[in-house]
């Protein structure tokens, strides 16, 4: 019998991540649905029933902003993720619990203490998602000169947090701690002993050169966008090469694309459902917001159901190319604007129809059999170590995936049939932190 690579699966609370529900999908939702503990508990219990590795709760700004103007997209806000996960630790037994905590504004001791507390309350199931510093949106009070190198700050913050988590002997005795760096200057003793998994799992998100390098140096999981099989395989190999440069092996970093899934009894039904979800998610208000972020100018006077603008995009501020010869962010934005304009012209689409057509595509659409086969192929061909499901609507969740796709993955030998070990590190097959070996 052929041995297959085992997939890792996780789920984000609706709204988390770049392809999640977002402000558009939550338009019109009852405010309590995203604040009520029952919403989180139901999702956690479903994910645990499906033997998922972890649940991810994101930290999101309450209102989307572009060039200093807030966009009213009927967002309902969300609670602080670590506080919610502390409560979920009491009603779950196996599911990993991960939260986004912004490295652009956090302080090492406070952050390390909050996450270590969650790790203890959950008996070793905590994870910390470090957002891609290039995408961080700290408030104006934090836009200071020492944040001009967000990757440098994030790298130092992760390093200091790891050292704090390891600042006690295996027997529990406190060790004096001191750090003098560019961004942080602290000393003292860390007040908590080590957790059953040694320290929380560090989850890095991002696609850029520096995000991949930061993950290769210090992360346990790398979250990336979904990509075609060949592109994903090349990316996975690139991350593996970076690990070797830091004295690490490929098994020490799991690469997990963030995906959306739409199922149907037939391929046609799945495609019809997918189209309906795209129209629900891309509201008229959100279509204008998305276009403004590409066009770089105020388009509030445009009719979202009217013709695509014939004006040229506004150039952004100077933005030098990234390391490795990658085009600058402004160059990518202008190229995207050209593609959207061509798409609108060729198909005669309105503003909203263009945004739906260009940016609303789901990752995997099909019957449970075809989706299970596609996910399995990504793992078997070295394109991904697992996936993070991003529900697209407030009422959407992983129930259908758990009931219809997980059993097929288990039949293929591509997914666990029971949790082995009680910590998030054991779920992910990660080694113990170096200081605990």
Automatic annotation (TrEMBL):
<dbReference type="InterPro" id="IPR011251">
    <property type="entry name" value="Luciferase-like_dom"/>
</dbReference>
<feature type="region of interest" description="Disordered">
    <location>
        <begin position="300"/>
        <end position="330"/>
    </location>
</feature>
<protein>
    <submittedName>
        <fullName>FMN-dependent oxidoreductase (Nitrilotriacetate monooxygenase family)</fullName>
    </submittedName>
</protein>
<dbReference type="GO" id="GO:0004497">
    <property type="term" value="F:monooxygenase activity"/>
</dbReference>
<comment type="similarity">
    <text>Belongs to the NtaA/SnaA/DszA monooxygenase family.</text>
</comment>
<keyword id="KW-0503">Monooxygenase</keyword>
<dbReference type="InterPro" id="IPR036661">
    <property type="entry name" value="Luciferase-like_sf"/>
</dbReference>
<feature type="binding site">
    <location>
        <position position="208"/>
    </location>
    <ligand>
        <name>FMN</name>
    </ligand>
</feature>
<dbReference type="GO" id="GO:0016705">
    <property type="term" value="F:oxidoreductase activity, acting on paired donors, with incorporation or reduction of molecular oxygen"/>
</dbReference>
<feature type="binding site">
    <location>
        <position position="147"/>
    </location>
    <ligand>
        <name>FMN</name>
    </ligand>
</feature>
<feature type="binding site">
    <location>
        <position position="151"/>
    </location>
    <ligand>
        <name>FMN</name>
    </ligand>
</feature>
<feature type="domain" description="Luciferase-like">
    <location>
        <begin position="34"/>
        <end position="383"/>
    </location>
</feature>
<keyword id="KW-0560">Oxidoreductase</keyword>
<feature type="compositionally biased region" description="Pro residues">
    <location>
        <begin position="306"/>
        <end position="321"/>
    </location>
</feature>
<dbReference type="InterPro" id="IPR051260">
    <property type="entry name" value="Diverse_substr_monoxygenases"/>
</dbReference>
<dbReference type="InterPro" id="IPR016215">
    <property type="entry name" value="NTA_MOA"/>
</dbReference>
<keyword id="KW-0288">FMN</keyword>
<keyword id="KW-0285">Flavoprotein</keyword>
<dbReference type="Pfam" id="PF00296">
    <property type="entry name" value="Bac_luciferase"/>
</dbReference>
<feature type="binding site">
    <location>
        <position position="100"/>
    </location>
    <ligand>
        <name>FMN</name>
    </ligand>
</feature>
């Amino acid at each position: 019998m052929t041995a297959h690579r085992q997939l890792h699966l996780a789920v984000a609370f609706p709204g988390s991540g770049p392809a999640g529900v977002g402000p558009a999908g939550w338009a019109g939702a009852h405010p309590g649905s995203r604040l009520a503990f029952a919403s989180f508990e139901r999702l956690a219990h479903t994910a645990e029933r499906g033997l998922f590795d972890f649940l991810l709760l994101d930290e999101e700004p309450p209102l989307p902003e572009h060039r200093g103007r807030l966009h009213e997209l009927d967002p309902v806000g969300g609670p602080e993720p670590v506080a919610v996960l502390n409560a979920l630790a009491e009603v779950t037994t196996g599911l990993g619990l991960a939260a986004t905590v912004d490295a652009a504004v956090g302080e090492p001791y406070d952050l390390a203490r909050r996450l270590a507390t969650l790790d203890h309350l959950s008996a070793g199931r905590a994870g910390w998602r470090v957002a891609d510093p290039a995408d961080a949106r700290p408030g104006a009070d934090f836009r200071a000169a020492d944040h001009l190198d967000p990757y440098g700050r994030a790298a130092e913050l992760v390093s200091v947090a790891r050292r704090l988590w390891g600042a006690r002997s295996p027997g529990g005795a406190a060790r004096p701690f001191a750090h003098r760096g560019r961004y942080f200057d602290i000393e003292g003793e860390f007040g908590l002993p080590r957790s059953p998994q040694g320290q929380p799992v560090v989850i890095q998100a991002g696609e850029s050169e520096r995000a991949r390098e930061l993950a290769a140096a210090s992360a346990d999981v790398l979250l990336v966008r979904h990509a075609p099989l060949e592109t994903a395989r090349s990316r996975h190999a690139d991350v593996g090469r970076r690990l070797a440069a830091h004295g690490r092996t490929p098994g020490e970093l799991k690469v997990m694309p963030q995906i959306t899934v739409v199922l149907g009894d037939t391929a046609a039904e799945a495609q019809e459902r997918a189209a309906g979800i795209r129209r629900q998610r891309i509201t008229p208000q959100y279509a204008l917001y998305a276009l403004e972020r590409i066009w770089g100018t105020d388009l509030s006077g445009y009719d979202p159901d009217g013709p695509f603008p014939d004006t040229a995009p506004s150039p952004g501020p100077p933005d030098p190319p990234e390391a490795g010869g990658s085009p600058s962010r402004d160059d990518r934005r202008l190229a995207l604007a050209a593609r959207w304009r061509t798409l609108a012209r060729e198909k005669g689409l309105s503003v909203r129809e263009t945004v739906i057509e260009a940016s609303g595509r789901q990752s995997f659409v099909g019957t449970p059999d075809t989706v299970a086969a596609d996910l399995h192929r990504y793992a078997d061909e070295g394109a991904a170590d697992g996936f993070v499901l991003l529900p697209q609507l407030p009422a959407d969740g992983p129930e259908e995936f758990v009931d219809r796709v997980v059993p097929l993955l288990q039949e293929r030998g591509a997914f666990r049939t029971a949790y082995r070990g009680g910590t998030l590190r054991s779920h992910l097959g990660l080694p113990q932190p170096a200081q605990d070996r």
